Amino acid sequence: MGSKDKAKHRTAFRGSLVALITPMRRGRVEEEALARLVEWHVTCGTSGIVACGTTGESPTLTHEEHVRVIDVCVEAAAGRVPVMVGTGSNATAEAVALTRHAAEAGAAAALVVTPYYNKPGPAGLIAHYEAVSAAAPDLPLYIYNIPGRSVIDMDVATMAELARRPNIVGVKDASCDPLRVTRQRLACGEDFVQLSGEDATTLGFMAAGGHGCISVSANVAPRQCAAFHKACLDGDFALAREWHERLLPLHDALFMESSPGPVKYAVARLGLAAAEIRLPLRLPQRATRAAVTEAMRNLSLSR
């Protein structure tokens, strides 16, 4: 994958990309509901599907479930929107195996989180991502930098080194650092795709040169999130600011407790999936449910 391929890939994942929940019922992944959610997002204008991430409860999925969620999402999307799948792990061998499966399943890209708990330094991070990259050389890879959950915060110099690898094409940045997108743009180049991983800060992220957001709120308000991103990509930041202000109460409510508890409650209110989440997380408490309900009501959200 050369520089021209990287430039072309920048158009594959941009705008409103949903960090898709994994619907469950009676302790099992509900594949039919998962396929229906993908179909709903296609019809609502979501630009791409991102499965098996934090919002998809990847830490509690078995390896077999993880593989099956990848397959279901790719099959349901049927090429109408690109599908990126989480394949990261704190064990490099597992990340390699999941990434190889993503490539074989026909995913458009893999999202590889910085290894959590182990706390590797820059040399370890480079070796980890090089191993994953070499395992699926034709599959575009995105670094998932989320220091709030993984503890590791990949510095710009390390990311720039990895960006030199042909198939490491971008980052999902959940650092919430307002200067990071500019520094990464300068260090990694304009063709390095930068996707926000935090809904509430995406307006500034896009204004600084970001390409889109892997969004939790898009699970609940896909049309509204798509309209916000269209305004950003059109350069109409006055309209984008209006959408941002309308969506902000929802962004805030969905993170009053650990995600994806609140967003699973919200999706259940839309009648799209059961209100079920795996331990050690729980569905939200009454105050959070009330805030989510109010935010949804103010956006006139319904299926």
Characteristic key phrases:
303 residues, alpha/beta, TIM Barrel, 8-stranded parallel barrel, two-stranded antiparallel ribbon, 47% helix, 14% strand
Sequence stretches where pLDDT stays below 50 over 5 or more residues: none
Number of domains: 1
**Terminal Cα span:** 40 Å
Q: For the largest beta sheet, what order do the strands appear in spatially?
A: 1-4-5-6-7-8-9-10
Secondary-structure-derived class: alpha/beta
CATH architecture: Alpha-Beta Barrel
Q: Which percent bin holds the helix content?
A: 40-55%
**CATH fold node name:** TIM Barrel
How would you characterize this protein structure?
This protein is of the alpha/beta class and 303 residues long. It has a single domain, classed as Alpha-Beta Barrel (TIM Barrel), CATH 3.20.20.70. It contains 13 helices and ten strands. It has helices at residues 3-9, 31-44, 63-77, 92-105, 122-135, 147-150, 156-162, 180-188, 202-207, 222-233, 237-253, 261-269, 286-298, and strands spanning 15-19, 24-25, 28-29, 48-51, 83-86, 109-113, 141-145, 168-173, 193-196, 212-215. An eight-stranded parallel β-barrel has the order 1-4-5-6-7-8-9-10, surrounded by five helices. It has a two-stranded antiparallel sheet with strand order 2-3. β6 (109-113), α5 and β7 (141-145) form a beta-alpha-beta unit. α10 (222-233) runs antiparallel to α11 (237-253) and α12 crosses α13. The longest helix has 17 residues, at 237-253. It is globular, with a radius of gyration of 18 Å. It starts with a helix and ends in a 5-residue tail after the last helix.
